[in-house]
Amino acid sequence: MDELVLIIRKKHGVLAGLFCLFVAVLAVVLWQGRGQNAAVFAPGLSGPATVVIDPGHGGEDGGAVASNGTTESGINLAVALRLDDVMRFLGHETVMTRKEDISVYTEGAKTLHEKKVSDLKNRVAQINGTAGAVLISIHQNSMPSAPSVHGAQAFYNRAEGSTELAGAVQESLNQSINAEQGKTAKKIPDSIYLMKHVTCPSVIVECGFLSNTSETERLQTDAYQTALAVSIAAGYQRYLANEGTE
Description:
The chain is α/β, with parallel strands linked by helices and 246 residues long. It has helices at 2-31, 72-89, 112-128, 162-176, 193-197, 213-219, 222-243, and strands spanning 50-55, 93-96, 133-141, 153-156, 186-187, 202-209.
Protein backbone atom coordinates (compact mmCIF):
# COMPACT_ATOMS: atom_id res chain seq x y z
CA MET A 1 0.00 0.00 0.00
CA ASP A 2 2.81 2.42 0.88
CA GLU A 3 4.40 1.75 -2.51
CA LEU A 4 1.10 2.49 -4.27
CA VAL A 5 0.73 5.79 -2.40
CA LEU A 6 4.29 6.74 -3.36
CA ILE A 7 3.61 6.00 -7.05
CA ILE A 8 0.44 8.11 -6.97
CA ARG A 9 2.27 10.97 -5.30
CA LYS A 10 5.06 10.84 -7.88
CA LYS A 11 2.52 10.82 -10.71
CA HIS A 12 0.69 13.79 -9.24
CA GLY A 13 4.00 15.57 -8.79
CA VAL A 14 4.87 15.16 -12.47
CA LEU A 15 1.41 16.33 -13.53
CA ALA A 16 1.69 19.33 -11.25
CA GLY A 17 5.06 20.18 -12.76
CA LEU A 18 3.71 19.99 -16.29
CA PHE A 19 0.72 22.11 -15.29
CA CYS A 20 3.06 24.76 -13.89
CA LEU A 21 4.96 24.84 -17.19
CA PHE A 22 1.77 25.50 -19.11
CA VAL A 23 0.77 28.20 -16.63
CA ALA A 24 4.15 29.81 -17.26
CA VAL A 25 3.42 29.88 -21.00
CA LEU A 26 0.01 31.42 -20.34
CA ALA A 27 1.71 34.07 -18.21
CA VAL A 28 3.97 34.95 -21.15
CA VAL A 29 0.91 35.42 -23.34
CA LEU A 30 -0.89 37.59 -20.83
CA TRP A 31 2.24 39.64 -20.15
CA GLN A 32 2.55 40.41 -23.85
CA GLY A 33 -1.10 41.33 -24.07
CA ARG A 34 -1.98 38.67 -26.63
CA GLY A 35 -5.36 37.01 -26.84
CA GLN A 36 -5.43 33.33 -27.68
CA ASN A 37 -7.29 33.96 -30.91
CA ALA A 38 -5.33 37.03 -31.99
CA ALA A 39 -3.97 36.98 -35.53
CA VAL A 40 -0.20 36.70 -35.66
CA PHE A 41 1.72 38.09 -38.64
CA ALA A 42 5.18 37.04 -39.71
CA PRO A 43 7.76 39.76 -40.40
CA GLY A 44 7.58 40.94 -44.00
CA LEU A 45 4.38 39.01 -44.72
CA SER A 46 0.85 40.33 -45.13
CA GLY A 47 -0.90 37.19 -43.93
CA PRO A 48 -1.01 35.29 -40.65
CA ALA A 49 2.04 33.22 -39.77
CA THR A 50 2.00 29.44 -39.71
CA VAL A 51 4.56 27.76 -37.50
CA VAL A 52 6.03 24.79 -39.35
CA ILE A 53 7.37 22.33 -36.78
CA ASP A 54 9.90 19.93 -38.25
CA PRO A 55 11.01 16.89 -36.23
CA GLY A 56 14.35 16.08 -37.87
CA HIS A 57 15.11 12.65 -39.36
CA GLY A 58 12.65 9.76 -38.88
CA GLY A 59 12.01 6.21 -40.04
CA GLU A 60 15.14 4.51 -41.32
CA ASP A 61 17.10 7.72 -40.73
CA GLY A 62 17.53 7.78 -36.97
CA GLY A 63 20.01 10.66 -36.91
CA ALA A 64 22.54 10.84 -34.09
CA VAL A 65 22.80 7.83 -31.79
CA ALA A 66 23.69 7.85 -28.08
CA SER A 67 26.02 5.30 -26.51
CA ASN A 68 23.00 3.45 -25.10
CA GLY A 69 21.44 3.14 -28.55
CA THR A 70 18.94 5.99 -28.18
CA THR A 71 18.29 7.56 -31.59
CA GLU A 72 17.77 11.23 -32.24
CA SER A 73 14.63 10.90 -34.37
CA GLY A 74 12.39 9.65 -31.56
CA ILE A 75 13.36 12.47 -29.19
CA ASN A 76 12.93 15.01 -31.98
CA LEU A 77 9.38 13.80 -32.57
CA ALA A 78 8.49 13.76 -28.86
CA VAL A 79 9.67 17.36 -28.35
CA ALA A 80 8.04 18.50 -31.60
CA LEU A 81 4.65 17.02 -30.68
CA ARG A 82 4.79 18.82 -27.34
CA LEU A 83 5.80 22.05 -29.08
CA ASP A 84 2.85 21.66 -31.43
CA ASP A 85 0.52 21.31 -28.43
CA VAL A 86 1.95 24.41 -26.76
CA MET A 87 1.83 26.51 -29.94
CA ARG A 88 -1.78 25.56 -30.55
CA PHE A 89 -2.57 26.32 -26.91
CA LEU A 90 -1.21 29.81 -27.58
CA GLY A 91 -3.47 30.23 -30.59
CA HIS A 92 -0.92 29.74 -33.38
CA GLU A 93 -1.59 27.94 -36.64
CA THR A 94 0.82 25.01 -36.99
CA VAL A 95 1.74 22.26 -39.41
CA MET A 96 4.19 19.42 -38.86
CA THR A 97 6.44 17.80 -41.45
CA ARG A 98 5.84 14.45 -39.75
CA LYS A 99 3.71 13.24 -36.84
CA GLU A 100 5.08 9.72 -36.53
CA ASP A 101 8.35 7.85 -36.83
CA ILE A 102 8.59 7.93 -40.61
CA SER A 103 10.77 9.38 -43.35
CA VAL A 104 8.81 11.55 -45.78
CA TYR A 105 10.49 10.32 -48.94
CA THR A 106 8.69 9.86 -52.26
CA GLU A 107 7.79 6.37 -53.42
CA GLY A 108 10.50 5.03 -55.68
CA ALA A 109 13.45 5.99 -53.51
CA LYS A 110 15.29 2.77 -52.73
CA THR A 111 18.65 3.30 -51.04
CA LEU A 112 18.99 5.09 -47.71
CA HIS A 113 20.79 7.94 -49.48
CA GLU A 114 17.97 8.31 -52.02
CA LYS A 115 15.41 8.29 -49.23
CA LYS A 116 17.27 10.97 -47.26
CA VAL A 117 17.57 13.21 -50.31
CA SER A 118 13.90 12.72 -51.20
CA ASP A 119 12.88 13.34 -47.58
CA LEU A 120 14.73 16.65 -47.44
CA LYS A 121 13.37 17.83 -50.79
CA ASN A 122 9.82 17.01 -49.71
CA ARG A 123 10.25 18.91 -46.44
CA VAL A 124 11.61 21.94 -48.29
CA ALA A 125 8.68 21.81 -50.73
CA GLN A 126 6.17 21.62 -47.89
CA ILE A 127 7.76 24.47 -45.96
CA ASN A 128 8.17 26.77 -48.96
CA GLY A 129 4.62 25.96 -50.02
CA THR A 130 3.17 27.05 -46.67
CA ALA A 131 1.93 30.66 -46.70
CA GLY A 132 3.46 32.81 -43.96
CA ALA A 133 5.70 29.99 -42.77
CA VAL A 134 8.07 30.30 -39.82
CA LEU A 135 10.17 27.15 -39.43
CA ILE A 136 11.24 25.57 -36.15
CA SER A 137 13.22 22.38 -36.79
CA ILE A 138 13.92 20.12 -33.82
CA HIS A 139 17.19 18.17 -33.62
CA GLN A 140 19.70 16.68 -31.17
CA ASN A 141 23.43 17.31 -31.20
CA SER A 142 26.37 14.96 -30.63
CA MET A 143 30.07 15.45 -29.95
CA PRO A 144 31.59 12.11 -28.89
CA SER A 145 35.06 13.68 -28.68
CA ALA A 146 33.82 15.98 -25.87
CA PRO A 147 31.22 14.03 -23.86
CA SER A 148 30.96 16.71 -21.17
CA VAL A 149 29.50 19.28 -23.63
CA HIS A 150 25.77 19.81 -23.12
CA GLY A 151 22.96 22.31 -23.54
CA ALA A 152 20.48 23.56 -26.15
CA GLN A 153 21.45 25.87 -28.99
CA ALA A 154 19.62 27.64 -31.81
CA PHE A 155 20.94 28.01 -35.36
CA TYR A 156 19.51 30.29 -38.06
CA ASN A 157 19.54 30.49 -41.84
CA ARG A 158 19.99 33.57 -44.03
CA ALA A 159 16.29 34.37 -44.54
CA GLU A 160 15.06 37.70 -43.19
CA GLY A 161 13.95 37.42 -39.58
CA SER A 162 15.91 34.24 -38.85
CA THR A 163 18.64 35.93 -36.80
CA GLU A 164 16.06 37.57 -34.56
CA LEU A 165 14.05 34.36 -34.23
CA ALA A 166 17.11 32.33 -33.20
CA GLY A 167 18.25 35.03 -30.79
CA ALA A 168 14.88 35.11 -29.06
CA VAL A 169 14.68 31.32 -28.81
CA GLN A 170 18.27 31.14 -27.53
CA GLU A 171 17.56 33.74 -24.86
CA SER A 172 14.62 31.69 -23.65
CA LEU A 173 16.66 28.47 -23.66
CA ASN A 174 19.45 30.17 -21.71
CA GLN A 175 16.98 31.30 -19.04
CA SER A 176 15.61 27.81 -18.52
CA ILE A 177 17.41 24.88 -20.11
CA ASN A 178 20.95 26.36 -20.07
CA ALA A 179 20.75 27.95 -16.66
CA GLU A 180 24.30 26.90 -15.77
CA GLN A 181 26.00 28.13 -18.93
CA GLY A 182 24.29 30.03 -21.73
CA LYS A 183 24.98 29.56 -25.42
CA THR A 184 24.91 31.92 -28.38
CA ALA A 185 22.69 31.51 -31.43
CA LYS A 186 24.76 30.86 -34.56
CA LYS A 187 24.31 30.90 -38.33
CA ILE A 188 23.89 27.44 -39.82
CA PRO A 189 26.41 26.42 -42.51
CA ASP A 190 25.11 26.39 -46.09
CA SER A 191 25.99 22.69 -46.19
CA ILE A 192 22.76 22.00 -44.27
CA TYR A 193 20.36 21.35 -47.17
CA LEU A 194 17.08 22.14 -45.42
CA MET A 195 18.17 25.49 -44.03
CA LYS A 196 19.89 26.50 -47.27
CA HIS A 197 16.80 25.96 -49.42
CA VAL A 198 13.89 27.13 -47.26
CA THR A 199 12.97 30.77 -47.82
CA CYS A 200 11.13 31.65 -44.60
CA PRO A 201 12.48 32.73 -41.18
CA SER A 202 13.98 29.50 -39.86
CA VAL A 203 15.68 28.11 -36.80
CA ILE A 204 17.09 24.70 -35.96
CA VAL A 205 17.04 23.96 -32.24
CA GLU A 206 19.65 21.42 -31.18
CA CYS A 207 17.95 20.46 -27.92
CA GLY A 208 20.89 18.64 -26.32
CA PHE A 209 23.86 16.34 -26.80
CA LEU A 210 23.31 12.61 -27.14
CA SER A 211 27.05 12.25 -26.54
CA ASN A 212 26.44 13.41 -22.97
CA THR A 213 25.07 10.53 -20.88
CA SER A 214 23.28 12.67 -18.30
CA GLU A 215 21.69 14.90 -20.89
CA THR A 216 20.56 11.88 -22.92
CA GLU A 217 18.73 10.58 -19.85
CA ARG A 218 17.02 13.96 -19.34
CA LEU A 219 16.06 14.23 -22.99
CA GLN A 220 14.10 10.98 -22.72
CA THR A 221 11.85 12.22 -19.89
CA ASP A 222 8.40 13.74 -20.42
CA ALA A 223 9.14 16.63 -18.07
CA TYR A 224 12.34 17.71 -19.86
CA GLN A 225 10.78 17.37 -23.31
CA THR A 226 7.90 19.55 -22.16
CA ALA A 227 10.30 22.07 -20.65
CA LEU A 228 12.10 22.31 -23.99
CA ALA A 229 8.82 22.78 -25.87
CA VAL A 230 7.65 25.49 -23.48
CA SER A 231 11.00 27.29 -23.64
CA ILE A 232 11.03 27.27 -27.46
CA ALA A 233 7.45 28.52 -27.56
CA ALA A 234 8.30 31.29 -25.10
CA GLY A 235 11.20 32.27 -27.35
CA TYR A 236 8.84 32.46 -30.32
CA GLN A 237 6.53 34.70 -28.29
CA ARG A 238 9.50 36.94 -27.47
CA TYR A 239 10.40 37.07 -31.18
CA LEU A 240 6.89 38.23 -32.10
CA ALA A 241 6.92 40.86 -29.36
CA ASN A 242 10.35 42.16 -30.39
CA GLU A 243 9.25 42.40 -34.02
CA GLY A 244 6.02 44.14 -33.07
CA THR A 245 3.99 41.63 -35.04
CA GLU A 246 1.05 40.88 -32.79
